[in-house]
Amino acid sequence: MRKVGQSVARVDAFDKAAGRTKYYEDRMPANALYVRIKHAEKAHAFVKSIDTSAASAIDGVVKVLTCFDVPDIPFPTAGHPWSMDPGHQDVADRLLLNRHVRYFGDDIAVVIAENEVAANQGVRALQVEYEELPFVLDVQKAMEEGAPQLHERFPGNVLKHTDLRRGNYAEAIKEPGLIKVEKWYDTPTVQHCHIENFGCFAYEENGRIVVVTSTQIPHIVRRVVGQALGRPWGDIEIIKPYIGGGFGNKQDVLYEPLCAWCSTQVGGRCVRVDCSREETFVSNRVRHAIRFHITTWLRKEGTIAARKVECYSNQGAYASHGHSIAAKCMGSFGQHYPCDHLELDSWTVFTNRPAAGAMRGYGMPQASFADESNIEDCAAALGMDPYKFRMMNVMPKDFHDAFSGNTNYFDSFRLCLEKGAAYIDYERKKKEFAGDTGPVRRGIGMATFWYNTAVYPISLETSSNRMLLNLDGTVTFQCGETEIGQGADTAYAQMVAEAVGLSSYKDVRVKSCQDTDITPTGLGAYASRQTYVAGFAIRQTADLLRGKILASAAARKELTAEDLDVVDSCVVLKSDGSPVITLSELAMTAQYDPVHSEHITAESTYTIRSNAYSFGCTFAEVEVDIPMCKVKIVNMVNVHDCGSLINPALAAAQVHGGMSMAIGFGLSEQLLFDEKTGKPLNNNLLDYKLSTFMDHPHLEAQFIENPEPTSPFGTKALGEPPTCSGAPALRNAIYNATGVAIDRNPINPHVLYEEFSRAGLIRDAWKEET
Amino acid sequence: MYDIKAIYEAESVEDAVELRLAHPEAQIIAGGSDVLVQIREGRRAGKELISIYGIDAMRGVSIDEEDNLRIGSLTSFSHITNNPLVKKICPVLGEAVDQIGSPQIRNIGTIGGNTCNGVTSADSASTLHAWEAIIELTGKNGIRRLPIKDFYIKAGTVDIRAEEGEIQTAVLIPKESYENTFGHYIKYGLRNAMEIATLGCSVNVRLSPDKRVIERCRIAYGVAGPVPMRAPSAEAVANGQAPTMALAEAFSLAVLEDINPRDSWRAAKAFRQHIAVEMAKRALIESVKRAGGEIA
Amino acid sequence: MSVQYKVVHCNINGRAVERTVDVRASLTDMLRNDYSLTAVKKGCEVGECGACTVLIDGETFNSCIYLAIWAEGKHIVTLEGLISPEGELSDIQQAFIEETAIQCGFCTPGFLLTAKEILDADRMFTDDELRKMLSGHLCRCTGYENIFRAVKKTMYRRQGKEIDF
User: Distance from C101 to chain B by nearest Cα, in Å?
Assistant: First the structure.
């Protein structure tokens, strides 16, 4: 039986169910000193001075360090592969602690203490004198002349502007009879909210620095810690234990450099940084709030003549992943609904908000919200059914993108739309709901999303791994593409078992814990790349291992390797399948050969020079209580073509989680800031509205399995795609229910109240009197 | 680890009164779901605490000799919800406190804590106002009882006299208040669990024996002003009237005479006013139904 | 400043224990630091995420906002207490594995203890009741879907029924 394509239990499930799995804090040495960070209480300022005397006097405080003590080495934080081309390297724009405060919550000092209470008291006792500066929170205001400036190197606050032109937009829009749909769409600042906050600890060992950290990208963290501290990269060892979710926040280097540096300042003692939930919201990373201006020119028969899209991406205070997100976001508009005449522009702009980085979807939840809202509005402008309009215009089969080299080998969009429509009973419900005219109305909506897999050709795509044949015939497997909850380790076990020829995925010992001194270099968990990218390297290393196994077996049994195969953990004759030697016997024989002892191992690196589209859609059914300004989700389905499924049950579970995040993005989540001070208002789990167990309907996950031709296992992206199309599907369902098209998310009761009032669905008589 | 200067544990009400007199600056902690959070925030860091959580005599629900429904101040929300007497006499109170926070919070949170912290968003408070609850305080001079509306002084401040060693020991609902009375509570939140009320509205009615007339209607809100409040203008509209849709409309609009919600980042005043009207209407209709009446 | 200590006697996972604890400690602190029961997770430390949930005398509590000294005389169960002495998982733990209800695993311990409280009630609940009883836990990985299935399936099994989703 094939090992891939099976819904086997996770390799880490037992320990997680038993509560034995160790996360960073569960490995904490008891004598670790507490590092607590003083966050600036101004949105934009220079720190003039910090009086540390009261803090230093507190019993238990070991050391106070401020922005006046740190090395003057700006460093980048993005979890991108390093580029040897200086022009393509990430922006190095922050210090370990910053004198120039660029957002409310910026890091300006630390207190290191023997216990948590003393450390917190120390932070509260610091007296900071600021020189206040004007600040700006809005992305377009930050681009205006005279706006407060955040970084000297980026006048006008524009980190980067890119564009894409196709055909001749100016001429194309002169075509007679075109219908113009021009609108603005706004998406909010949201946060990842993995349940384990970020944290790490660091200590010196034999003159080197070890950091144990809750990260998705251990090998990248090693490089950045080295850069930030001005130390050779080999001086740094990063250990990544199990982590309690990441969703992209931990695809950034967070406080590992600060923690490592603090250890060096107390003689190499172990120090710990544990972000509180409040800090995780503000002083880690957030998702870019992107504002869109879209003009679509339509022909009456329902085709798109030309399109102009502007994306304004709110970067916040530091570059982090920078323009990559807006660029990916913008690029999707040229492919999702292809048209011949395009003008696309994207700007990534610094503001005095928390730094935005990677978050599940990498620009696509925002792009999908805007694009799919606009597509819905286009269908409405034409008086066409939105399903039909999408079927007419969405990317056709065989579409080829020259830049990425991607080809739409199958008609994924239409297959997914058909399947989703069938599940939700679209045609019937659309007719039925059209009759609703009372205070509570039902609606049905859909949205599709564009996605691709991994980061080629923008950045390096590489994966390395190691396979060791154990004496019992099992295989130990190590790679740098991390398990962060998504189930990567289990997928690897299944792929390794398949590729080597083991009898079960349980015969693969996946080393979940990466240690940069031991684990072959991999880039980590991001870009929905792990299964796709690791697959190439797994196939390659497995072939090497099989080659060694067969050669060893052939030599010992006086046979020819070409005549042998590995099946169910046994070397067999290809001709009739008869057993030659079990892997266990072979491993023992080889290892304990008194003359030619051999540990059968293999290791390789694969550089991937391809990419793969991964598409899908959401259908949502809602019930809108207009007077109460409430939306109830009645039914929701996602359909994905992510190629062949390695583990269908885990794939469905990924989809559920993505849909849940999309529900939050669509209806409830938003990090708010005080306009007067720039202070975050709701950076806690009570006031930031993650959806709860009671806010979800049954979430349905369905798949179209078209094997991806470029992948050795026929697989492609699934980690991020499920979070892309849910919010616009909900928006379109609300539109269908009420006739009110809402162009900003989250569509929470406050927004519904404003929009329903504007549309005349709510008439508060007493307000009209006044 | 909490930043607490010292903690004194009371084992009885008398003990608590003495500790209060001995440590007048100390903060009382019952279940701690508010106080501990405030300590962690730094707001109450470094303070002395008097823990009354261990006083089991302050837990439980009973009918006292005056036929009041008596709820010990340390009774947790979940125990109130599941209590047979509450279910029989004032189920709406059980339903209201069943919407607080999460199941775990409802196991630790107490009705005493919910009222003593004086916040307007407390889910128990609007129902207790609508049912004209009596607050029982015990101090060095014995027991003092006062109507709940007088207990709330201003946002975050209630009438407990620390200098007299007072602690709140019970919440009472008088027979005259609960007899033949049926109510409904609506909590407005942005999500369906783990929520702080954007607005809370509790309505109850007593119908005439033939169910054709609302003999007495009471309505109270949380978050419609700095402290929980009744809406007497609306009550006056409904009292003595037949339960009709037109009455429900008039009743609900009349609440605007009484309430004064504020504009904040949590919700705009106009939005709160809008839902206050809608909630009043819906809660009245449901209350009448529960009382066996029909809305004509 | 002198630190105040108190001896706390209680029963943890079936064993009578006592330990001298700093009175400032939360129950999370005590369970993790003094008893190495690291299945008790910290996600917010203000009672909003449910990751630190434990059973105290059969009811669920957020141990982060429960003072350690209040544990005196109480019976406490953490996830470490659900596994049999022979290392067998309980039915609900097994169901979490079968239904793929575990991803990053950080909310899992808390959910399992709430599930235990629900299942120990030994009766059938409606879907809405189950969702409400489980609503004190936040999960960012699963959308709650498979957690719901695992709890519902085990509830059915305990009543001698099989469920077909």
Answer: 21
